Amino acid sequence: MEDPPFLSNDQILRYGRHLILPAIGMDVQRRICNSSVLVVGAGGLGSPVLQYLAGAGVGRIGIIDADEVDISNLHRQVIHSESEVSNPKVDSARDSCLAINSSIIVETFNERFSRSNAIELVQNYDLVADCTDNVSSRYLINDIAVMCGKPDVSGGAIGTEGQLTVYNYKGGPCYRCLHPKPPPPETVSNCSDNGVLGVVPGIIGSLQAMEILKIVGQFGEPLSAKLLIFDGLSCSFRSMRLRSRSPTCDVCGDKPTIPNVLTDPTADLIDYNEFCGSCHVELDAKDCPSVSCEEYKSIVDQGDEHVLLDVRELVQYEICSLPNSINIPFAQMKERIGEVFKEIGQTDIDPLFGKPVQPVPVYLICRRGIDSLSAARLLLSKDAKNVINIRGGLLQWHRTIDSEFPLY
Ligand SMILES: Nc1ncnc2c1ncn2[C@@H]1O[C@H](COP(=O)(O)OP(=O)(O)OP(=O)(O)O)[C@@H](O)[C@H]1O
Ligand SMILES: [Zn+2]
């Protein structure tokens, strides 16, 4: 490999505190300045990754994200600011990177990282940083990184915990070696459903930036075949050894079942949404009666007798709720099913005939209409009667019925 060019006087001044570090010095800094990194996702993790890479002088940074800045992003996505709300995240992130360091090149892609652009993008950079928040993107980024022979620096943060590792680095394992099959979609959580303490992706993203700099600058010991787990509540870090590269891995093993589209132009990439089951969330499911928010509103206005069961977690219920609702979180329903039946009037016995009375309708609501659908299905599977899901949940209520109802 050709030696990277010497640093200019401006660069020596700018990176002086790196240059005097024995672990870095001129050679490492020159390699950093000559490197290119693709950052997928300019959200909670992507923010510190991008800020530190720009500050450290990574010569060419690619940013891909199809999302726009939302006010609810700002507690953690510190690369964006209030004035950027509703603007594309990639534009806001690029401007922040260039405000930190105008001597670098920032390339932006206001689109999703997908089967159609993945190979071309990853091929064009030295390394890919996975700063996304969903399983199908993780598999796609991993597989393409393997096919292109690039390391994948991967972070994750949810609630008050985070994790970090480096995949596909110098013969180390890839994501698929460790997770050959995706988790069931209903077990996967995200920030929007479960919340995240803003500092946690800040910490993990900063560590991701550290790993990236070590790899492109060729110093230190990257976190390959190890997983770092951070618990924000106790402020503790744990590092676990991971298994080594698996010879039976579907993408990097001895006989990969997923063809390398780079070396085999006739092959197609798999459908990652289908593989992860993420496209199977059927919200207007035929197996479960449902009403729109407008329909539910007219039931309330007519004064029809019914039960409104809000299945969100208590912390969410305490933020806001519709009048006359009862709260039983979906997560507790299975264990408390007897109690749930009592509370929603499904066990009432007619005193005259000794038979169960026809229960009043039970309408289920949650934030987006997904947990309430699962809860309705659970109740129906236990023979509950007259159970009806409210489609779109409280977000839809805010949009179509009452714009004063809090949005979170
Ligand atoms: N396949 C993908 N290609 C490009 N960007 C992606 C992809 N998947 C996820 N992202 C981006 O990664 C970022 C992840 O950010 P983060 O986890 O902080 O949550 P968010 O999606 O911005 O917000 P919230 O979960 O609160 O709605 C988002 O900006 C999202 O658009
Ligand atoms: Zn593998």
TrEMBL record:
InterPro entries: MOCS3/Uba4, Rhodanese-like_dom, Rhodanese-like_dom_sf, ThiF/MoeB/HesA, ThiF_NAD_FAD-bd, Ubiquitin-activating_enz. Residues 302-406 form the Rhodanese domain. Gene3D superfamilies: NAD(P)-binding Rossmann-like Domain, Rhodanese-like domain. Its EC number is 2.7.7.-, 2.8.1.-. The keyword Ribonucleoprotein does not apply. Keywords: ATP-binding, Cytoplasm, Metal-binding, Molybdenum cofactor biosynthesis, Multifunctional enzyme, Nucleotide-binding, Nucleotidyltransferase, Transferase, tRNA processing, Zinc. Its main location: cytoplasm. GO terms for cellular component: cytosol. Binds 1 zinc ion per subunit. It is found in: Cytoplasm, Cytosol. GO terms for molecular function: adenylyltransferase activity; ATP binding; metal ion binding; thiosulfate-cyanide sulfurtransferase activity; URM1 activating enzyme activity. This is Adenylyltransferase and sulfurtransferase MOCS3 homolog. Zn(2+) binds at C174, C177, C249, C252. It holds the Pfam family ThiF. The keyword tRNA processing applies.
